[in-house]
Amino acid sequence: MTNVVGYEVEGRVAVLTIDNPPVNALGIAVREGIVARVDQAAADDNVDAVVLIGAGRTFPAGADIREFDRPTKEPHLLAVVDHLDSIEKPVVAAIHGTALGGGLELTLGCHFRVAAPSARMGTPEVNLGIFPGAAGTQRLPRVAGLDHALELIVLGKPIGAATAKDYGIVDEIVDGDLRAGAVAFAEKVLAENRPRNISSEPREGIGAPEAFAETIEKYRDLANRRMRGQDSPHIAIESVLDGLRMPYDEAVAADRKRFEVCKNSDQSKALRYAFFAEREAGKIPDIGKDVTPRVVETAAVIGAGTMGRGIVVSLADAGLPVKVIEATKDLLDAGLAEIGKLYDGMIKRGRLDEAGKAERMARITGDTDYGALSDTDMVIEAAFEDLDVKKEIFAKLDSAAKPGAILATNTSYMDIDAIAAATSRPADVIGLHYFVPAHAMRLLEVVRGEKSAPDAIATGMALAKKTGKTAVLARVCHGFIANRSRLPLVREATFLVEEGASPEQVDRVLTEWGMPMGPLAVSDLSGLDVSWRMRRSLADRHDPDERYMHLADRMCELGRFGQKAGRGWYVYEEGNRRPVPDPETEAIAIEVAKEQGTERRDISDDEIRERCLYAAINEGAKILDEGIALRASDIDVMWLSGFGYPRWRGGIMFSADEIGLKHIHDRVQAFHAQHGKLWAPSPLLARLAEEGGRFTG
Ligand code: CAA
């Protein structure tokens, strides 16, 4: 299959162009094409050197991940890479866009590498539950040194061209036309009669593992901290170590076996699922490419509270001029000062410099008058969660904002249609539910009201992309997808404490499952009063047949709001965020259990895990069934980006499929019988359990 790899000769240099849109992934046709074209160049008497380049937006961005579910076809990428470096004529890789994974490994088979200044390179395979299986773990240490190689392989973060040059991965950075620069470089190699660099050959300074014990320990430790529970970074380290212990051929033979095991592991399947789920989330069936997002060149945020400030920073970081609207001059000044402090924090952590802060602050202006919004393209309301307050704001926005401006509300659970009805232009109203802290959290829940116009929704999705966020679309219901599906987990966590578990047991079980923090420690962090207020606002809608979160209410009545109060489910020492178990919590739980007639008992870890997770899964199934989420994977993307659900478990719906829907349905039925109405099984779950189906296909 040579048609996906072009062949042209310029002077004495053959230019092989890989053309497999969108990202030139190294599927079987490309692998065969490269081998065929390289052989053609080797046999071509008019050719003395070869340039390998990608057409379109990028050098190959890696192996074709979709092929991982099928048996591997020969030639394996490893054979292609080995074949490249056996060619007697110098081969130059010309890198632009993103040379990732197998793409970077392909360049390591080439004898030289040149790159556009904007090119990025890396080995992100660990994020897919695998490791660079086409000899990257052997060749990269020889090219870049062990420390830099481990940095790329274990952490999976790409680097820019300049860093790659520092690391010795890139020989030359080409300004201007890359292809011409690469051909000129190849001609220079020929003119200078430079020897070919063969990265599979032993390199001085790469020797016995013992000499690198400290470096290896550093990356083991980083892998444990940053990718807790995930196997692939550790397997990658083992593979690199093999390269120190064995000759190249033996090490890559061991890698071949290891790679197959990794690729077929549950973690890799889940991580690959997550990769495609995130890309799928951006696709809305009835909003195709023909729907153009509205132009957003200016933005405004109503309210400079914690959420508003985070949104302002996220917009200003993306280069948008932002107006902040507050009720009074004092509130405005205080809000702007806090925004300055947020940037100071980033400077302290080395993420920004003073010039960067000044640039961003210059984009942020403030006003107390809605009249200032007359030329703004998008207004995001981030006021107090009170429906009447929000309706009032939207009525004012209706008079103040220009025609066609997007009017977005950041509510996390309220009825967007009721808010939209306060305006004469409900088609322009959407929900943009940010997560705290809004400038740092990746998730943005875009909520589609009954009357939201398709291009208004497309604008929300585009804003997410522009601000570096993952957008997921939800329909209107109380709590939308994210909060509605998470609430049952938190609810069960608090019921379990009432029934006899300790907060630390509940949190431990869920962190052992892979969550970064337990739900009760998270409640302490975000404040128990937030959901207390919500419960109180819904008091008149509470169904008396449903079990109620009395214990959580009692904690708030006692002022145990969490970290900010120094005590919640745990206690906190002054200036310390570490949760410390508190016997008083147990005493309160005993008291509430007595009042409610709840029998206290020993609770097993299994019950905690099942009740917390299955409650969320059952709700997720209802959300899916009701059409609030377009697809099960959208719910998973929310949990991955919004709640730190372990990526290597795919998300709650994927986990459910892996556990088995029949088992989950049986357990949900049992909990329903035991704990009542809140556990009513989702009809979709019941049906799929019966049919042996899955949520996630
Ligand atoms: N295989 C198959 N499809 C891929 C792909 C890959 N390696 N990389 C991207 N795609 C697809 C995406 O699914 C998407 O498809 P749809 O349009 O149908 O949704 C399309 O290409 C465009 O991708 P993005 O939407 O992600 O585009 P972007 O511009 O935002 O990002 C990118 C581009 C940085 C390359 C990003 O796609 C990415 O990170 N890709 C994965 C890179 C990677 O992990 N490479 C290692 C692969 S494993 C490997 O190489 C193993 C080995 O050692 C042999």
Describe this structure in words.
Helices cover 49% and strands 11% of the residues. The protein has 697 residues and is of the alpha/beta class. Helix 24 packs across helix 27. It has three domains: 263 residues, Alpha-Beta Complex (2-enoyl-CoA Hydratase, Chain A, domain 1), CATH 3.90.226; 181 residues, NAD(P)-binding Rossmann-like Domain (Rossmann fold); 209 residues, N-(1-d-carboxylethyl)-l-norvaline Dehydrogenase, domain 2. It contains 28 helices and 17 strands. The structure holds acetoacetyl-coenzyme A. Acetoacetyl-coenzyme A (CAA) binds next to strand 5, helix 3 and helix 11. Acetoacetyl-coenzyme A binds next to strand 5, helix 3 and helix 11.
Briefly characterize the structure.
By secondary structure, the chain is of the alpha/beta class. It is 49% helix and 11% strand.
Poorly predicted tracts of residues: none
Q: CATH class of the largest domain, anyone?
A: Alpha Beta
- CATH level-two architecture of the largest domain: Alpha-Beta Complex
The geometry reads as: globular
CATH superfamily of the largest domain: 2-enoyl-CoA Hydratase, Chain A, domain 1
Q: What is the percent of helical residues? A: 40-55%
Rounded radius of gyration (Å): 28 Å
Provide the number of structural domains.
Answer: 3
Q: What is the helix tally?
A: 28
Bound molecules: acetoacetyl-coenzyme A
Strand content: 5-15%
Structural class: alpha/beta
Distance between the termini: 32 Å
Largest sheet: 8 strands, mixed
Task: Quote the average pLDDT.
Answer: 96
Total number of strands: 17
